[in-house]
Batch of 3 targets.
Target 1
Amino acid sequence: MRAVIADLPKHWLKERMNSEVAQWDEMWNGVLHMPPMPNGMHQDIAADLQFYLKQHWAKPRGGRVRQEVNLTTPEDEAHWTHNYRIPDLVVLSADRLGIDKNEYMVGAPLVVVEVKSPNDETYDKFPFYAALGVPEVWVFDRTTRVPELYTLGAAATYEPVPAGPDGWIGSPATGVEFRPTGMEKVTARMVGDPASATELPDT
């Protein structure tokens, strides 16, 4: 069930901020958004994908992969807590490490990754990422693990990357490919490196 409260009572807000679930809350231009708490399946795919990307992509290239970071715009940096999103993963190439301010990131990472939960706002975040100029957005269904890859087009909107004849969907920005394998799994590999193929999550 979705609900909109025009003005959140102060005692509700205080209770929310003091709870564990507040760590996933986002502010969209001063409006509080409260996503569903990630369940075990959500956490499994996010954590295992982060580990895979660190080992096979980030470390060899001097990049970085972070989980659940506060991502804001250069215009909002001075008051970033009024406008930020929290992707499940953020992928930084070596030339973009400067956007990482430890407590938050400001500007466009190379890739943001969203794990899609029922009735969440995954696709509603796309305009924010497009305005930042994020080259790619990856979306994984938390239950089926089916991947969707999107690249930023000329019209500042995201266009889906089609799967190849063999079922692999490739990321132009990173050289990582994904293919759903069924049984709530997805296989990741680096282009040209069959030995890097790994089924995720690994549990």
Target 2
Amino acid sequence: MSSEKTKKIIYWTLTGLVGFIFLGSAVGKFTADEEALKMGADFGIDATTYLTLGVIEVVSISLFIIPRTGIIGTLLLAAYMGGAIATHLEHGQSIVAPCVIQALMLAVAWYRFPELRSRLLNSNS
């Protein structure tokens, strides 16, 4: 197997993993059961806001998956996860899961987008 083919497989596998995580979370928000809505209510989030968060996740992960808009999706997902971390901190919840998800998403973005690596490492301009 060629090195380029291996890179493509890794690229899409990692992208799919991140996509699966965020789409799973969004579907959970679209099909919110009583327990999910109760957890949201504990955070001060009503059913409409919960649905809006699901839409934001779907839009952000869609932009992340599409190579041409991937960096924009990365920035939106990083901001979204930053909000999740802040919300968890504010309500005394563990931040381990959102931090791990954000670290994974950023690691995948680092691998997928050489222009992002280049921009972050060469801050001369």
Target 3
Amino acid sequence: MGVKDSMDSYHYGLGGSELIYETHAMVHSYNILFVHLSYDNSHLIYCDSCHNSENLLGCVGMKKNKYCIFNKAYQPDEYKKLKEKIIAYAKETGEYGEFFPPQLSPFGYNETQGQVYMPFKTREEAIRAGYKWEDEATTGTFNKETLKPETIPETIDEIQDSILSEVLVCVGCNRNYRIVNNELTFYRREKIPIPRLCPECRYQKRLSLRPPRQLWHRKCMCDYKVHQNTIKHPDHSEGVCPNEFETSYSPDRPEVVYCETCYNAEVV
């Protein structure tokens, strides 16, 4: 089962969903507006963490309930009249029609994935845009390590099970971290050394390998004289390919960038 007649939502659709708008984290839901992290529901508006329920407005943390407004139950007729009255008022004040505003977030912007995909350079920029900012966003423990990075064996074959009881220290940020059993099993299977970076620094390192979330207009760099292509490509029989396109690889990067046609001709 898929998703039908839905838009502007993220992380939803498992089990089939329909009429979903401006939501996050929905499963098996129908007619859901401006709702966060709620599963197996129908006819919910502005709710958070509600499950197996129907006809809720402005509710939080409810399970197996129906005809509730602000977590209070009503008779169906009462619910319908009060819901329409509240929505009409919210439309007049301009509060209806969008997902929860950032002012209600329990997190600072720099603690969320927003700072990864659409970063603000400074705290002041985020505040001006209406977001919260956490001045002490770094979490974790420090100076609790029982094993120094230089004493950890270089190869995974030398690692003993005793490392599971050790506290390690990140060479990047000095945050403490540990190795768990399933992780150690994976490293041994894949012949991967014990990481010297904590999970957060490893995550940031992976993110740094991504191209930026920006597009540049480029020309295909396929040139038979320069790149010694192995076969002739459909869009040009000689010389330089005429195709132009948008790409996340900026012109100052070292990679050779082909159009889709030339790329597929080389790799297929």
